[in-house]
Amino acid sequence: MNIGLALVFGVLYWLATNKLWYGTLHLVRQPLVLAVPIGLIMGNLGDAMKIGASLQMIYLGAIAPGGTLPADEALASCITIPVALAAGLEPDIAVTIAVPVGLLGVLLDNLKRTYHSYFVHLADKAAEKGDMKAMGRAEFWYPFFCSIPLRVLPTTLALLFGTDAVSAFLNAIPAWAMNGLSVAGGLLPALGFAVTIMVIGKKELIPYFILGFAMYAYTGMNTIGIAVIAICIAILQSQFTNSTGSTVAVDDDEGDF
Predict the structure, then answer these.
(1) What is the pLDDT of residue 254?
(2) Are 209 and 92 in contact (CB under 8 A)?
(3) Predicted pLDDT of residue 18
(4) Per-residue model confidence (pLDDT) at position 55
(5) How far apart, in whole angstroms, are the C-alpha atoms of residue 150 and residue 10?
(6) Which pLDDT score, from 0 to 100, does residue 255 have?
(7) H or E stretch covering 21
(8) Which residues of the chain fall short of a pLDDT of 50?
């Protein structure tokens, strides 16, 4: 693969993983979605969609507790699909390539979160001074542009040298570095649980928490089914609240936490 095409897919990976479209972030980074531009660029949309569908089955039920990625489906897609199309690989073979590539993406994401913590301190200082523009730059623009090398370069190099280079890179990483990144990533779920506790700690929302827990524990229903029911309950409550003209009082003390 030539360097120009590899660079295009590197930029695509960067666009798919930044927070520019925060509301659609998890949709944009999915293999089935990324297969469309990749297939159009390489002139083989049909095979790209077949490979993307196979990759999607791997990450269909994947969740990121506390923001910790179990695997980076976006990087796996932006490398595996172009490589498979260029080599004429079948979708079942492409799936085996995606696994080590997705693990590399987790390491990159943990590294990004580590050095992006510096911008959090910049935002805190700007907030203390009341400088909203500086706060906005530290919260969005600095991480947005600083993530370009971390996202674009590994994808471009992997496409230039092949997936064997990715596996060799993973094996060459020292154990202490792997352990450090794993520990850093393992701390992130604590933040997710803390945010969840801040929400369910409010007295008005505890019945919903108990209901969801009981449904999962005693009915055997999976999380997708429970999520559908939860959405319906939220819509019904919203409609009921609007029709009665009353709202549920919510404490401003973050649920006493």
Answers:
(1) 46
(2) no
(3) 78
(4) 83
(5) 10
(6) 43
(7) none
(8) 188, 247-257
Position of tokens 């969005």? 140
CB 82 within 8 Å of CB 3 = no
Ordered DSSP codes for 138-169: IIIIHHHHHHHHHHHHHHHHHHHH-HHHHHHH
Q: How many CB atoms lie within 10 A of CB 225?
A: 13
Q: Give the residue carrying structure tokens 């990715």.
A: 166
Task: Provide CB contacts within 8 A for 199, sequence distance 6+.
Answer: 205, 255
Q: Please, which residues have CB within 8 angstroms of residue 148's CB and are 6 or more apart in sequence? A: 14
Compute CA distances 202 → 167, 199, 255, whole Å.
Answer: 47, 6, 4
CB neighbours of residue 29 within 10 Å? 23
Q: Is the dihedral of CA 23, 95, 183, 114 positive or negative?
A: negative
Taking the C-alpha atoms of residue 123 and residue 133, their distance in angstroms, rounded to an integer, is 10
Q: Tell me which residue of 255, 253, 139 sits closest to 196, measured CA to CA.
A: 255
Distance of alpha carbon 6 from alpha carbon 256, whole angstroms: 51
Amino acid at 118: Y
What is the gyration radius of the CA atoms in the chain, in angstroms?
Answer: 21
Question: What distances in angstroms separate CA 170 from CA 127, 161, 166, 231, one per listed residue?
Answer: 40, 14, 6, 41
- Using the structure block, give the residue that is written with the tokens 């999520």: 227
How far is Cα of residue 167 from the mean position of the Cα atoms in its chain? 22
